[in-house]
Hints:
The complex is a heterotrimer.
Chain A: H1 2-32, H2 39-57, H3 61-82, H4 92-114, E1 119-120, E2 129-133, E3 136-139, H5 140-162, H6 164-174, H7 176-181, H8 186-208, E4 213-214, H9 219-233, H10 238-258, H11 264-278
Antiparallel strand pairs in A: 1-4, 2-3
Helix pairs in contact in A: 1-5, 1-6, 1-8, 1-9, 1-10, 2-3, 2-4, 2-8, 2-9, 3-8, 5-6, 6-8, 9-10, 9-11, 10-11
Chain B: H1 3-24, H2 28-53, H3 62-79, H4 83-105, H5 110-130, H6 132-135, E1 141-142, E2 149-151, E3 154-157, H7 163-184, H8 187-197, H9 199-204, H10 209-235, E4 237-238, H11 240-244, H12 246-259, H13 266-282, H14 285-292, H15 301-309, H16 314-328, H17 332-348
Antiparallel strand pairs in B: 1-4, 2-3
Chain C: H1 2-14, E1 21-27, H2 34-53, E2 58-64, H3 69-82, E3 87-89, H4 94-107, E4 110-113, E5 129-131, H5 136-150, E6 155-161, H6 164-180, E7 183-190, H7 198-207, E8 211-215, H8 220-231, E9 237-241, H9 248-252, H10 254-257, E10 261-264, H11 275-286, H12 292-310, H13 315-324, E11 327-329, E12 332-334, E13 336-339, E14 342-346, E15 351-356, E16 359-364
Helix pairs in contact in C: 2-12, 3-4, 5-6, 7-8, 12-13
Amino acid sequence: MAVFMQSLISGILIGGVYALIGIGLTLIFGVMRVINFAHGDILMVGMYLTYIIFTMLGIDPFVSVLITFPLMFLFGGFLQKVFINRVLNALAQNQILLTIGLGLIMSNTVMLIFTSDYKILTTSYSSSTIQVGGGVSVSTPLLISFLITSAITAALYWFLLKTDTGQAIRATAQDRDAAQLMGINVKRMSIIAFGLGAALAGTAGALISPTYYIFPQVGGVFTLKAFVITVLGGMGSVVGATLGGILIGVTESMSAVYVSSGWKDVIVFVLFLLVLLFKPSGLMGKSRT
Amino acid sequence: MDKTILKAIAILAVLGGLLAIPRFVDSPYALHMMILLFMSVMMGQSWNILGGYAGQHSVGHAAYFGVGAYTTMMLMHTKQIAPWIGVWAGIALVVVVALIIGSICFRLRGPYFVLASIAVAEILRLSAINLTTLTNGAEGILATELPPFKVGGAIITDFATKVPFYYIGLFLVVLTVGVTYLVQHSKLGYFFQAIREDQDAAHSLGISISLYKNIALVLSAVLTSLAGSFYGIYVGFVDPPTVLGLDVSVQIMLICIIGGMGTLWGPVLGSLVLVPLSEALRSNMITEALVKIGLVSPESKIGIFLKENLSHAHVLLYGILVVVVILFMPDGLMGFIKKLAKRRKQEAV
Amino acid sequence: MRKHLLALGASLALSPCLLAQKIGVINSMSGPEAPIGENITNGIKLAEEDLKKKGINLQLVWEDDTGKPQISMSAMEKLATRDNVVGVVGPYTSACSNAVAKLAEKYKVSLLIPAAAKEEITRQGLKHVFRMNAPADKYASSLIDAALSLGKPKTIAFVYENTDFGTSTSKTAKDYVATKGIQVVSDVSYPKGSADYRSTLAQIKSKNPDLVFMVSYVADAILLMRQSKEVGLQPQAFLGAGAGFTTTEFAKERAISESVISCTQWTDDVSWPGAKDFGTRYKAKFGKEPTYHAACAYASMVIMAETARNAGGDRAKTRDALKAGQWNGVMGEVKFADYEGFTNQNNHQMLVQQIISGNYETILPTKFATKKAVYPFPKWK
């Protein structure tokens, strides 16, 4: 029972961070219909940013989110304006290759600057835990990052539902042409959406920095995970990505114990294919062809 | 003279030249680069049939490459079955795998198809890691000793040099380009392109979408698996990341897209650019060449900087190349050349 | 005419004082293996400097193999036939070394592999392939012997990355514990780079093993130990194989790394000639601690360069001298011997070390020991 509870709790907590990565990707896809293969690399840039802020200015990674978020927003907006914008109407594989190319540029530029060494960001609480009884423990940094994730997600819901810009973004995601006819500045919405997506990925990077490690090629693992989460929740659905992230976190954690840790990723991909086949709109998405 | 005859003569001349190369070039390094070039053409051209002509942009072709490479290597390693027999088992298996993958992925369109193709390839990669009794897991299969190739008791070659690999590679390139040519100039090719241009319209014309998609997939998969088998035999070692990894799929797609999708010579052109370029960047030959022609002195700051960093930065330059091509030549090099030629014609008029 | 030129070239190459020794380096300088490859690059750069001081000029031809076997082959073809090097040091990964070894044999160029772990590489009877480091099986036997000499463990749990290194190390370890009567209670492989091992570790905890044997090549080691502490996994000893457990970053994480037993090919506090000095100068030059890869690469380059110089840049003579020679340097005594099915394999002495007060201290073999081992593993605070 302790093993089960431990797996469930750590699965949910790690799933929170996955959700943040997935939400970023789903926003970008929802508004632009572009599959962003550089998503993991953007997360990596966020990690290095956190690392610089921590080592140079001594600012705690969780606090530095306040700096990382706006900087990554600008970075994402820049990427959209200079690169992605030009391929919005191009073939899907050209968009994919463009983002792959951008990812290669990001990871290799970082490699030239920082070398490819692993960077470890050690805080005073990196290995501290809270005992919750029954032999089950919770990692303090993971719990904090889960709480921050929840706060950011809530703020994002509020932004998308209640503000004019948020509603304009949702309108663009629903029907780009109609939104344009309604007088929405679609180009601006795209820049904001990509900026937000990058900011969320960067924030996720910042949040896992204290419990993970940093190196230039770290992005690849997260890019694939983000795809799975996004599709699971329904491409473009923020609620779906939130649930998808937690579902993946728990699936990984549980299948590592009850199936085998070598096969856990296979289970995730099989789940992914099943959803694609039998509910292609995702768990929360509206049907769209 | 008729344009097609001219073209045919040019192709035969190039082919003749390629056949004669090993007679005049005895540098194994040069032959090795040619063999890598052949592999690249095969990979790009195989993808072209499905991605370029039928418009189904798979980012999971490593699945077929890996199945081909693994089957041949496993049979050679554990059952001592010669690769030219094992390759047929690889083809048979890859047809089955392709049909299964097709039955899953072809229900999906656009980005969903892309993601599903990635997922399937990843499942195969992870399975190769975990099915240790079958595939030897992450340790991979090492089989460097090739049995001599015999016809009726006479040894044709014992694979001691690069020359037999060169001719096998050349033969496979001719085969893949030939198959693509036949596809392009047959009813099949028209059906593929109809599906690519407008799936629903093709359907309403009575073209069986799923049948022709599967034909394109099987053709493409079989040729990719041949490339994979060739890779395995030539390198003598396969393991999950090098033959089933996501970057293999991306590489395959890249050759075709850089060169020009849906054109017969696009993947050839793409390989002719990518293979030498990445080798020159990787091995610092560009710096060497700059030094040789006297543009950069090896002791100068620029010379030292280039020497220290260029080989580290080659993947960065590769990434920049990809971005530039996609942004400024969305139809690949072939498309770019055609556009230039057209413009010149218009100017002439 | 061509023959004359060749002869002229050969005679020039035979005058050792005039020409620099042309030696090839194949290494993973970019791509996923680059973080470790960098240590090899640095080790070789330091060797180049030191050799220059000794009056041996090197002309190194650097080749990046990006961690891919076929690219490694391109590099070897180029080095052997276009650059005409005397010998080659590298490649880093086992996959690349496997692909390149047969080419070295074909072109009769000596290949000195500094740090690839796979046993098979030097088990194919190849005359021109030499290896400096001890292969993967040594990790397992050294660590388990250490645990057996310290206590009486009855059960063991394995956690290892599902890479070539992880699988082959744990495979030999499982075979080895079977001969020692230790029961395997848990056998878990994980994909490199996972963020969460808590559920797996909690499951292992429920089996209550005496030993936990982990294989991690990268920073996963820190995550594994942090999360072991979180879930309260408490064996008699944590045994760590692979570079992940032997970095200073790992030792610096004192809350989780203290008393972990690991084994390595090299440390800078071992009494091998020049080891300490190498460590100091490496830190001064590159601003970080040397790993065993750096030391292996350094020693490999020094041996290759000196041998090539003494052989007058002749390939056949270099290979014979490598085979016959014996050296004593930063890697201790080096000799490329044939034993237990290996050919040209340096029967390197592995060092078992433990983190005591935040420092790596050698605990076995006894003649190199700097501190007495702490056993069993103290209770988590």
